[in-house]
Specification:
The chain is of the alpha+beta class. The chain has a domain of 60 residues: Roll (Nucleotide Exchange Factor Grpe, Chain A, domain 2). It has three helices and six strands, in the order H-H-H-E-E-E-E-E-E.
Amino acid sequence: MTEPQTQDNQPVEETEPDAAPEMDAAARIAELEKQLAEMKDRALREMADAENTRKRAQKEREDTAKYAVGNFAKDILGVADNFRRALEAAPQDVIDPAVKNLIAGIDATERQLQAVLERFGIKKVEPLGQAFDPNFHQVMLEVETAEHAPGTVVQVLQPGYMIHDRLLREALVAVAKGAAPVAQSIDKSA
Protein backbone atom coordinates (compact mmCIF):
# COMPACT_ATOMS: atom_id res chain seq x y z
CA MET A 1 0.00 0.00 0.00
CA THR A 2 1.33 3.37 -0.98
CA GLU A 3 0.83 6.57 0.94
CA PRO A 4 -0.74 9.53 -0.79
CA GLN A 5 1.89 11.97 -2.05
CA THR A 6 1.98 15.65 -2.94
CA GLN A 7 3.18 16.93 -6.28
CA ASP A 8 6.78 17.08 -5.07
CA ASN A 9 6.61 13.44 -3.99
CA GLN A 10 6.41 14.20 -0.27
CA PRO A 11 4.11 12.04 1.76
CA VAL A 12 0.96 13.79 2.93
CA GLU A 13 0.65 13.85 6.65
CA GLU A 14 -2.70 13.02 7.95
CA THR A 15 -3.89 15.45 10.58
CA GLU A 16 -6.01 14.56 13.48
CA PRO A 17 -9.24 16.43 13.95
CA ASP A 18 -9.09 19.43 16.29
CA ALA A 19 -9.07 18.34 19.84
CA ALA A 20 -10.65 21.57 21.02
CA PRO A 21 -14.42 21.50 21.17
CA GLU A 22 -16.08 23.56 18.47
CA MET A 23 -17.86 26.74 19.51
CA ASP A 24 -21.46 26.71 18.89
CA ALA A 25 -22.62 29.09 16.11
CA ALA A 26 -24.37 31.60 18.41
CA ALA A 27 -21.25 32.13 20.54
CA ARG A 28 -19.13 32.53 17.42
CA ILE A 29 -21.56 35.14 16.01
CA ALA A 30 -21.57 37.04 19.32
CA GLU A 31 -17.76 37.09 19.35
CA LEU A 32 -17.61 38.34 15.77
CA GLU A 33 -20.22 41.03 16.47
CA LYS A 34 -18.18 42.18 19.47
CA GLN A 35 -15.04 42.39 17.32
CA LEU A 36 -16.97 44.28 14.64
CA ALA A 37 -18.25 46.81 17.21
CA GLU A 38 -14.70 47.30 18.52
CA MET A 39 -13.39 47.85 15.00
CA LYS A 40 -16.18 50.33 14.23
CA ASP A 41 -15.42 52.21 17.45
CA ARG A 42 -11.71 52.25 16.63
CA ALA A 43 -12.39 53.44 13.09
CA LEU A 44 -14.65 56.25 14.36
CA ARG A 45 -12.02 57.34 16.88
CA GLU A 46 -9.32 57.36 14.20
CA MET A 47 -11.54 59.40 11.88
CA ALA A 48 -12.31 61.89 14.67
CA ASP A 49 -8.62 62.15 15.51
CA ALA A 50 -7.76 62.78 11.85
CA GLU A 51 -10.47 65.47 11.65
CA ASN A 52 -9.17 67.16 14.82
CA THR A 53 -5.64 67.11 13.44
CA ARG A 54 -6.88 68.64 10.18
CA LYS A 55 -8.76 71.40 12.06
CA ARG A 56 -5.75 72.11 14.28
CA ALA A 57 -3.46 72.41 11.26
CA GLN A 58 -5.97 74.71 9.52
CA LYS A 59 -6.14 76.95 12.63
CA GLU A 60 -2.35 77.07 12.82
CA ARG A 61 -2.17 78.08 9.14
CA GLU A 62 -4.76 80.81 9.70
CA ASP A 63 -2.96 82.11 12.80
CA THR A 64 0.36 82.10 10.98
CA ALA A 65 -1.11 84.17 8.16
CA LYS A 66 -2.94 86.46 10.58
CA TYR A 67 -0.05 87.16 12.94
CA ALA A 68 2.95 86.75 10.61
CA VAL A 69 3.55 90.50 10.50
CA GLY A 70 3.77 90.71 14.30
CA ASN A 71 7.56 90.96 14.63
CA PHE A 72 7.80 93.39 11.73
CA ALA A 73 4.97 95.46 13.20
CA LYS A 74 6.71 95.67 16.59
CA ASP A 75 9.74 97.20 14.90
CA ILE A 76 7.61 99.65 12.90
CA LEU A 77 5.79 100.85 16.04
CA GLY A 78 8.94 102.73 17.04
CA VAL A 79 8.71 104.67 13.80
CA ALA A 80 5.05 105.47 14.47
CA ASP A 81 5.96 106.64 17.98
CA ASN A 82 8.67 108.93 16.60
CA PHE A 83 6.28 110.53 14.11
CA ARG A 84 3.89 111.26 16.98
CA ARG A 85 6.72 112.68 19.13
CA ALA A 86 7.86 114.91 16.27
CA LEU A 87 4.34 116.28 15.83
CA GLU A 88 3.94 116.88 19.56
CA ALA A 89 7.30 118.67 19.71
CA ALA A 90 6.58 120.90 16.70
CA PRO A 91 5.59 124.46 17.58
CA GLN A 92 1.94 125.24 16.90
CA ASP A 93 2.37 128.93 16.07
CA VAL A 94 4.77 128.53 13.14
CA ILE A 95 4.79 131.38 10.65
CA ASP A 96 7.41 130.08 8.21
CA PRO A 97 5.59 128.28 5.34
CA ALA A 98 8.46 125.80 4.84
CA VAL A 99 8.24 124.65 8.46
CA LYS A 100 4.42 124.48 8.22
CA ASN A 101 4.75 122.25 5.15
CA LEU A 102 7.30 120.06 6.94
CA ILE A 103 4.94 119.61 9.89
CA ALA A 104 2.02 118.90 7.54
CA GLY A 105 4.15 116.31 5.74
CA ILE A 106 5.07 114.56 8.98
CA ASP A 107 1.40 114.55 10.00
CA ALA A 108 0.34 113.07 6.63
CA THR A 109 3.07 110.42 6.83
CA GLU A 110 2.00 109.45 10.35
CA ARG A 111 -1.65 109.12 9.26
CA GLN A 112 -0.61 107.00 6.27
CA LEU A 113 1.50 104.73 8.50
CA GLN A 114 -1.43 104.29 10.90
CA ALA A 115 -3.71 103.45 7.94
CA VAL A 116 -1.26 100.79 6.71
CA LEU A 117 -1.00 99.30 10.21
CA GLU A 118 -4.80 99.16 10.50
CA ARG A 119 -5.06 97.50 7.08
CA PHE A 120 -2.98 94.64 8.53
CA GLY A 121 -5.14 94.42 11.67
CA ILE A 122 -2.86 96.52 13.91
CA LYS A 123 -4.77 99.08 15.95
CA LYS A 124 -3.58 101.69 18.41
CA VAL A 125 -4.97 101.39 21.93
CA GLU A 126 -5.38 104.66 23.82
CA PRO A 127 -6.35 103.79 27.40
CA LEU A 128 -6.58 107.37 28.75
CA GLY A 129 -9.36 107.57 31.33
CA GLN A 130 -9.84 103.80 31.51
CA ALA A 131 -9.23 101.60 34.52
CA PHE A 132 -5.75 100.09 34.67
CA ASP A 133 -5.62 96.58 33.18
CA PRO A 134 -2.35 94.67 33.70
CA ASN A 135 -3.11 92.60 30.60
CA PHE A 136 -2.87 95.68 28.36
CA HIS A 137 -1.02 98.35 30.34
CA GLN A 138 2.29 98.72 32.09
CA VAL A 139 2.41 101.25 34.92
CA MET A 140 5.41 103.51 34.65
CA LEU A 141 4.43 105.90 37.44
CA GLU A 142 1.66 106.80 39.84
CA VAL A 143 0.27 110.30 40.07
CA GLU A 144 -1.48 111.68 43.13
CA THR A 145 -4.73 113.26 42.04
CA ALA A 146 -8.16 113.88 43.47
CA GLU A 147 -9.68 114.24 39.99
CA HIS A 148 -9.57 110.52 39.12
CA ALA A 149 -10.36 107.33 40.96
CA PRO A 150 -7.31 105.31 42.05
CA GLY A 151 -6.17 102.93 39.31
CA THR A 152 -7.43 105.13 36.45
CA VAL A 153 -5.03 105.80 33.57
CA VAL A 154 -4.33 109.55 33.70
CA GLN A 155 -1.52 109.75 31.15
CA VAL A 156 -0.37 107.61 28.23
CA LEU A 157 3.40 107.71 27.87
CA GLN A 158 3.40 105.30 24.92
CA PRO A 159 0.27 103.89 23.26
CA GLY A 160 -0.34 100.18 23.11
CA TYR A 161 -1.17 98.21 19.99
CA MET A 162 -3.30 95.16 19.24
CA ILE A 163 -2.89 92.86 16.26
CA HIS A 164 -6.35 91.47 15.54
CA ASP A 165 -7.34 90.08 18.96
CA ARG A 166 -3.86 89.81 20.49
CA LEU A 167 -1.75 92.32 22.34
CA LEU A 168 1.20 93.42 20.22
CA ARG A 169 2.61 95.98 22.65
CA GLU A 170 1.30 97.08 26.03
CA ALA A 171 0.66 100.76 26.68
CA LEU A 172 3.03 102.53 29.06
CA VAL A 173 0.82 104.55 31.40
CA ALA A 174 0.64 106.71 34.50
CA VAL A 175 -2.19 105.82 36.86
CA ALA A 176 -3.98 107.78 39.55
CA LYS A 177 -2.77 106.99 43.00
CA GLY A 178 -5.52 108.85 44.74
CA ALA A 179 -5.23 112.06 46.68
CA ALA A 180 -3.06 112.11 49.76
CA PRO A 181 -5.20 112.29 52.85
CA VAL A 182 -5.57 115.83 54.08
CA ALA A 183 -3.98 116.14 57.50
CA GLN A 184 -6.49 117.43 59.96
CA SER A 185 -5.08 119.91 62.36
CA ILE A 186 -5.91 119.34 65.96
CA ASP A 187 -6.53 122.51 67.92
CA LYS A 188 -4.62 122.06 71.15
CA SER A 189 -5.74 125.41 72.54
CA ALA A 190 -9.16 124.15 73.45
